[in-house]
Amino acid sequence: MSKSKEKKMPKPKGKKKKKISKHYINSIVEASNPTERKIDFKQYTTNDLIKACANCSMCREECPTYVSREAESFFAGGRLRIFRTIVERNLPVTDDFVEAMYLCTTCKQCEDICPIGLKYVDLIEDLRCELVQQGIGPYGGLIGFSKSIHLNNNPYGEPPSKRKDWVEEGVTEVEKGPYAYFVGCTASYRTQSAALNTARILTKILGGIVLLGPDEVCCGSPIIRTGQIDFQLEIEEGKFVPFTVEDYITRNIENMITRDIEEVIFSCSGCYKTSTDDWPKYFSKEIPFKRTHISQFLARLVEKNEIQFKPLNKKVTYHDPCHLGRHRKVYDDPRTVLYAIPELEVIEMRKNRNRSRCCGAGGGVKAGFGADALSIAKVRVQEAVDTGADILATSCVFCKYNFLDAKKEMGVDIEILNIEDIVVDLL
Ligand code: SF4
Ligand code: SF4
């Protein structure tokens, strides 16, 4: 039979096989400058976490960054495989490796699904610290977080003097405790309506609140999540200054202590998670005040029958922020508040509570990988639209910020609101 007349073998039916990612291969075999980019990973050779991964890939399809990139180096098991190979074979580190280690939202979906309960997020944050310490991380423009925080106390490059510019009528400030509202950088400069609505709610309920204003500094979340914890920061060519997250955490805590604060309320899930999980690690004494998310604060009042809401004849679906849900296990309180609103119909998305999809913004992904953050957010916004809800509600100013960007691109008809945006007009 001539070659041209040969019958081709029929292709097997079923799912198309995914291509092996160039990132996976590049990360292992390439190095732009192997001698300079060797990194001392000795301490990881005995690390049980990287050896424990069973390579089952059960965490792959659920990972938001895998959904965005469809490449083997962008989910927990794939990253661990690459990292283990580099450690065990003492291979040089490449730009693709650094990119793969930073394109992770630290959402913990992989941990929730992992059959052996591997604590992946602790490992990736630890590895990012190592990359920063050894002058290889953070990825791309993420160094801008620490540079801006060093200059302005926030990662957005905004002046500290404008931190309280969102304050308007309906907000009463008091000099001393017991209650303070920690606004956070995103609500102070980017989603200011959430800051204003939270402060108005707290004013109505408590009579007045302490706001630190220009004395409030970054909670530490963006720099902890991206490994910029304790290193020499180059502020101009050849000029280095010590940069440590401990300084910022200590300033926030001491500013609360001098104002006799007993309870601090947060509207950003990232700030709340950082204040509860991370602040105690970096503050030398016991933190003498309680830290509460606004959804917990409102749910407490609902449960004690100390608050009533006016009716709202709409449909809402609730998005669990990763840092409030999977990281802090706060699933019921936001729902308690929504269910307490008369006539409001609450519809769950298919993926909810511990199985909630990530919004795509966390872990430095929105700043470092804007297109991925947007594509991940679009998947979640579409899921909300598919429920037929009028409102996509969340409990995190950073999730809201990313969803609003996605909504703008998609042109869909759904309101994106934080719980406090809904509640403020119903008191
Ligand atoms: S933490 Fe989230 S983004 Fe990172 S690997 Fe796990 S599932 Fe993927
Ligand atoms: S689910 Fe767990 S064991 Fe399986 S690949 Fe992912 S991290 Fe490894």
Automatic annotation (TrEMBL):
Residues 179-272, 316-403 form the Cysteine-rich domain. One of its GO terms (cellular component) is plasma membrane. Residues 1-21 are annotated as: Disordered. Residues 51-117 form the 4Fe-4S ferredoxin-type domain. Keywords: 4Fe-4S, Iron, Iron-sulfur, Metal-binding, Oxidoreductase. InterPro entries: 4Fe4S_Fe-S-bd, 4Fe4S_Fe_S_CS, Cys_rich_dom, HdrC_iron-sulfur_subunit, Helical_ferredxn. GO terms for molecular function: 4 iron, 4 sulfur cluster binding; metal ion binding; oxidoreductase activity. PROSITE patterns: 4FE4S_FER_1 (PS00198). This is 4Fe-4S ferredoxin-type domain-containing protein.
